[in-house]
Automatic annotation (TrEMBL):
Pfam families hit by this protein: AAA_25
Gene3D superfamilies referenced in this protein's UniProt entry, alphabetically: P-loop containing nucleotide triphosphate hydrolases, RepB DNA-primase, N-terminal domain
InterPro entries in the record: P-loop_NTPase
Domain of life: Bacteria
Name listed for the protein in its UniProt record: AAA family ATPase
Alphabetized SUPFAM superfamilies for the sequence: P-loop containing nucleoside triphosphate hydrolases
Organism: Falsiroseomonas selenitidurans
Amino acid sequence: MTAWGDFNDAAPLPDNSVSELPSAGQIALDRLPGAGQPMPAALGSISPDIEQIAAFLDVVFGYCDGLIPVRGFVDQGQGLDTKPHNIWVPADRHAAASLSAYATWAAREGSAVYVIPGTVAEQGQARAEHVLQMQTVVVDLDAGDIAAKLAHLVHHLGAPTLLVESGGRTAEGAAKLHVWWRLTEPAEGEDLARVCALRGEIAEKVGGDLHFRSAHQPIRVPGTVHQKHGVQRHVTIREHHPRVEVELPDFAAAVAAMPTMPGLEAPTAAPGANRPGLDAVLTTPVREGSQDAWTRFQGASAAIGHFVRMVHEGRITGDEGWKAICQYNAACLRPAWPLDRLKVEADSIWALHVDRNGPPLLRATAPPPSTIPAHTLGVLLDDTSPMPDDLIGPRLLTPGGMLVLGGAPKVGKSDFLISLLVHAAAGAPFLRFTAPRPLRVFYLQAEIQYHYLRERLQQLRLDPAVVARARDTLVVTPKLRMLLDDQGVPLVATAIRAAFPDAPPDIICIDPIRNLFDGGPAGEGENDNAAMMFFLQSRVEALRDQVAPEAGIILAHHTKKLSKQQVKDDPFLSLSGASALRGYYTSGAILFRPDEEQTERELHVELRNGPGLEPMLVDKIAGRWVEFDRRGERLVRQDIGRKLDAERLRKQDVILGILLDEAAEGRLYSTMQLAEKFENKVGLGSKHTIRERLSVLATKGFVKFRRDGTEFGLGVVRSRFGYLCVEGMTFGPEVETVDPQTGEVTTSARRVLPSHFKCPQSGNCLDVENPEVWVYPEGVLDDLTPEELGLTPHSSPKTTS
């Protein structure tokens, strides 16, 4: 006996296994009782259920003609060694009685009862090529999460006609199931091969038993007894819906559309079968009778589906699609299908595709060649009419143009884009870019959720007048979870019309491409040139054509991971995706950070409709994007220079901190005394270095002086300047004061206020006019870096004289 790991999970018996069985192993039909005759009683504790056997036979063989191959195998774990026994039962009204009699004998002998779910012509036939008719599609769920697999099947394929508990249990204790769908009529010939292919495809997508690709794979009969390892259980019908039937073409389309269950790998090709690419299907001849790697039906379905998708997406006209289907039929199907059958299949697949994907974007009939505009050289040279105004100048975004803004994640691309759009919506200049008037802007963004979007907008430090003009002309979507596909395009178009009901938008912005990308029927990603061109032409341009043909398009896009040198050599090669994108847009901009340790970004711009712009060095300071003068950049030894700058800032912060801390403990210092006391401490270096830093800080206004120290128990200094004083300085612990009128006792710190300061022009010691107000020399704060402005914790809002 062939070793079975489970009732259906072993390899199928060889096709010639029937002929190798001894005659004693085959039970003659005349030994079974006829209709109405009593059946012998089973000796086991569980007897077969004739009503369930009859219901099963009606579902699986009710429309079939011929003989039902029945097989009996001894269940494992009983200590029995009996050869398989086979009979062939006519598929007629007596089949239930005959099979019930056999099941009673099998229960007594410890055998399980199986059938091949198809009919053959003669006794002794049981190989795959002998099966003539099948009227069901079945999947065997024998492992994993059975309930989840069943739910997946019912959701995508509909409720089954029959649901059977096979009697086995998974490792988790769940009942193993057979799921049956009855067809409206028996499948024969090519349709029979199609049924077997569907059984294999369903099993692949839900993790079922893959042996059911074979037409001769046997399966247990409900109502019989499962006796593995000596434990008896009925093979039981859990659900029976006799009115549920499916059409084979519709069911095949549903199986094709059903996704693989989450957690399973995508289906792989069955042993001995090829799953070719579309190019192979469209060019390889296929003969009837399953002589090739795929059947005529499989090839025709794939080809029709391909051309249906192209028509649905507007890539070809309906007439062109039908012509292509007919050409495939004539060139590749041997023999070709009749045109009426071809039309029925095409109409069925088209109806199913429209039902699942919505209304088609039918391609309009191409205009005759005479309507294509063409101009002579003379006309172009003589036309001196004014050029149309740039939407964002100079030539960054022109009417009907497309700007692609690229940048690595977290470089500030969306923040930069928001600021640009706000200024464009207000008609205000932004960096070097200008808008001729307040523009109507629709910002379709798919990255930032609503609450974080409003937070980011509220953090922008914009001119109130700019914000006031842009309040109603900039419309922004929160994060979207959708694709810009044949359903998304009309949805977005409707939203744009609702946002601007009186006039079309001037700018449509999509941020980012990746989150909304639809690569077309082939499902390719943004790195594929054809997919990128499909997205730009059939999605982005189609959206613009529906709402505002002259609107400018702005696309935000990610960049690839390249070295800093590669980005500097050619920034626009870093755009993620296909090279088709760069050849399509009219303007490109790349925002990148040349040094990850610095906050400055470089903005490179290339223009198709105008001269290129010089690279810009930009950064966000105090909530606003500003441009730096590149003439102040170091050209050599940049890394060392940055380290020296950082060290000077560190010493500045340490010196100011020391002065604050020492004064709080009741100690004031002159310049020389501080330098000598803290020489070679906390990394400040020699006393000469400390004196030099103090001199610089005094010139910049960070340090001032107080000559009279008698208030703090110190004398009047005779030096040129006096005791060092910094903003916010207090002396010693807080002291109590008594109000002479109310007697109220309060505590307060004794402030150390300056009396003199160092003139930034002459270096002379001058009197402070108002000690209560800390004033910095004019222009000093403008020259300070963000680190110098915000490094010291004691700093308060600065004012200049």
